[in-house]
Amino acid sequence: MPYKSLKESHSFQQSESSNNNICYDHQCSADIKGEHKGNNTVSDGQSGMKHTFRLPLSFEFVIAGRYLRARRKEGFISLISMLSVAGVMVGVMALVVVIAVMSGAETEFRERILGVEPHILVMEYSGMFNNYPDAEKKVLLMERTAASYRDIISVSPLVFGQAMIRTSSGMSGAVLRGIDPESGISMIKGYSTDDLKKLLGEDRLALDPSSAAFPGIILGRELARNIGVKEGDKIILMSTGGILSPVGHMPSMKRFEVVGLFESGMYEYDTSLVYVNIRSAQSLMGMGSRISAMGVWVDDIYGASAVKDAIVDTLDYPYYARDWMEINQSLFSALKLEKTAMFVILTLIILVAAFNIASALIMMVMEKTRDIAVFKAMGATDRMVRKIFMIQGMIIGLSGTVMGTVTGVIVCFLLKKYEFIELPAAYPFSTLPVQLEAADVILIAAASFIICLVSTLYPSYKASRTNPVEALRYG
Q1: Best label site of 79, 166, 292, 434, fewest CB within 10 Å?
Q2: Which residues of 246-257 are buried (b: 16+ CB within 10 A; e: fewer)?
């Protein structure tokens, strides 16, 4: 390029930059390198006058901002940038909503399971708990002496067993659970401790068959529907734990009155579980004073594993314990796997948008080859050129991430508050369960921003490798 043309071009750039408080003169070359910030004083070599100006943003941010504002001939690049922002926004929004729904489903399952299951089950290897009072005292003593295990809420004996229900319309199998209504903890969802004392307490026990009152039994709603009974009906409960007679083994039978129906929300529980007083269950199963297990409830359900280990260390052999996470490990492992799979799948949407960001930056680099050459000829380093295009991609990615996060949070709020999406009866939930967790939102936003940042590395590297001489000669 002739010297006169280059000088005129440089004078035009200097006059244009003066309106934007940016000096491109040789005395201000340090400003391009980012060495002067805030108020800067430059001395004119000929007149001796000093000029004070303010640099509001770094050189890289100013140039990146100008490149993002499209001109007529760069409208296509700007369109790709807008599509990239929209792609990142949609991907982040979908991730936030789906992960919130998965977290809500996990929470719903956990609450419904813990509504009918103890947090920790302590059992004996023989299958029968022979010395429950001593074991209970040791656990309660551990609660009082160990400061880290003060969150034990209640300890209660339990009886498990298989039974058959006989009604006037037929028979059905059931899972029998004997509970102690006086334990101070409700083991049936929808029933308070006072309700259990009233329905299954000692006042309703009728150990004398000639008594007019019958022991109470609470059935799952689906089980009651299947066998055709309702509250107030009489049923016969049969157990294999009977007696030996001259004609062989005779099953034990006892008549109960249906005093309540429960609905846990889990079909497996609602179609099989029945609850009776623990004394009635022991009598029916022929267990005497023995129990099947000791249930322990804790305040911090996520700390149940530590409490379980402490109980095992306290009671020692032949006792062992399992917490609710171990008992339902397959279900929660499946939910965790689904949550991870959905995160990976929906992250691909953000990845596609990142490819669009890379494409837009590559075309921008090709379009601005001469500008890059001028910057480098005026003293801009490779690092500064890289930052220009990395900042462009980061602005696009950050805009899409912020818009997607805000939109996703708003959608989750609307889904939770208005519940306008109803699910078929085959699902355990009537509406989409939504639980928005801050950790998930932060992880999604961070992953989106990192993917967008990585997509800027190659275009910015190619821009920094531009040879100014070749670019000015052939560009």
Answers
A1: 79
A2: eeeeeebebebb
